[in-house]
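Hey, sorry to bother you again with one of my protein questions. There's a protein on my desk that I can't quite get my head around. No rush at all, and the record is pasted right below.
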Amino acid sequence: MDAGLPQLEPIFDIRLEFDQRLRIGPVPGGGHVGFTAIAGGEVCGPRLTGRAIPHSGGDWARIRDDGVIVFNAHYLLEASDGTLIYLRNTGYGRTGMRPLGPGESYEEAERTQHYFRVTPQFDVPVGPHDWLTRTVVIGYGERHENPDHTIFRYFAVP
């Protein structure tokens, strides 16, 4: 084992609730564009706690014909001390190892999604949370239904 490999440090989780999902397409070049609006959520963890500000953004995802979802989410967090944090989440999801079949819905494919990885970037005022602006952070998500929400787990790469 290489002693130089970094160990991931759990820093926080976000549970995001959603209130709207829209699809545009098919679009030229193939696939669809989707929008998922953020209804709110909770942030908890050893290095950050607070909430996702309701209706502060959402995810504009490109849903490719090969089943890959390209995430591009923007929304605001509010730390428990009142600090506002802008989060931009980019990454990939995969609905399966094969392309979607004729007539197969993207909504159904998203429910069976098994790969969901993100690389967030943060804009934070100078202060107790600005460590987010100089730390490599990676994460993964787990989509759930009834109610419609996703849990993201984030890790610092020291």
